[in-house]
């Protein structure tokens, strides 16, 4: 089954969980994984879906054994396990990352629809990311909206700084990448 066919089937079955109208583009995947490579250290991905960002991470040289994915959808999980041998795939919410991944992760890449989630869920996801990130690690998140995917009060409460990347027009809909670090 193709990525697109699987994405469409899962979207029709559970549109609130998928929360996108199309899979992320390869251009967005390259923007999300910018700066990562074989010497990056451990990388964790939240909400990989069909694995577009996973594919980009591996293409940049991130080693499969240093890559851990957290995905809720059982069909996506089965697909990811088959498509990316050697990559650890957990069928668990992102909030469980701190329980399963040792601190010291270089980057957490997130394809989760943070803005469509209740504030307490959004905070627990980002909190889990920073619980496993190395002191200089970064949390990378995209959004379709005009503002960061975390409100200013959450950024302040968690003591984060945010850098806005370029808008990726070659995505449906266009998206902007944000990189968060500890302040």
Number of strands: 7
Low-confidence region ranges: none
Class by helix and strand content? alpha/beta
CATH superfamily: Vaccinia Virus protein VP39
Distance between the termini: 43 Å
The major β-sheet equals: 7 strands, mixed
Q: Label the CATH architecture.
A: 3-Layer(aba) Sandwich
* Average pLDDT: 90
Describe the structure.
There is one protein chain. By secondary structure, this protein is of the alpha/beta class. The chain has one domain: Rossmann fold (3-Layer(aba) Sandwich), CATH 3.40.50.150. The protein is built from eight helices and seven strands. The chain has a seven-stranded mixed beta sheet. The model has no long low-confidence stretch (mean pLDDT 90).
Q: What descriptors fit this protein?
A:
183 residues; alpha/beta; Rossmann fold; 7-stranded mixed sheet; 7 strands
Summarize the structure.
By secondary structure, the protein is α/β, with parallel strands linked by helices.
């Amino acid at each position: 089954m193709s990525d697109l066919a699987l994405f469409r089937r899962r979207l029709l079955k559970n549109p609130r969980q998928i929360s996108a109208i199309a899979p992320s583009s390869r251009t967005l995947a390259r923007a999300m994984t910018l700066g990562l490579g074989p010497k990056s250290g451990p990388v964790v991905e939240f909400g990989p879906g069909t694995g577009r960002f996973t594919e980009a991470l591996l293409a940049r040289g991130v080693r499969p054994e240093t890559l851990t994915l957290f995905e809720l959808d059982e069909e996506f999980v089965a697909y990811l396990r088959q498509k990316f041998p050697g990559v650890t795939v957990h069928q668990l919410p992102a909030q469980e990352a701190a329980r399963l991944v040792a601190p010291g992760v270089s980057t957490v890449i997130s394809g989760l629809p943070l803005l469509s989630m209740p504030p307490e869920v959004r905070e627990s996801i980002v909190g889990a990311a920073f619980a496993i990130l190395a002191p200089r690690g970064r949390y990378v998140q995209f959004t379709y909206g005009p503002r960061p995917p975390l409100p200013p009060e959450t950024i302040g409460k968690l003591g984060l700084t945010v850098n806005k990347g370029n808008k990726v027009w070659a995505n449906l809909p266009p998206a902007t990448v944000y990189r968060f670090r500890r302040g």
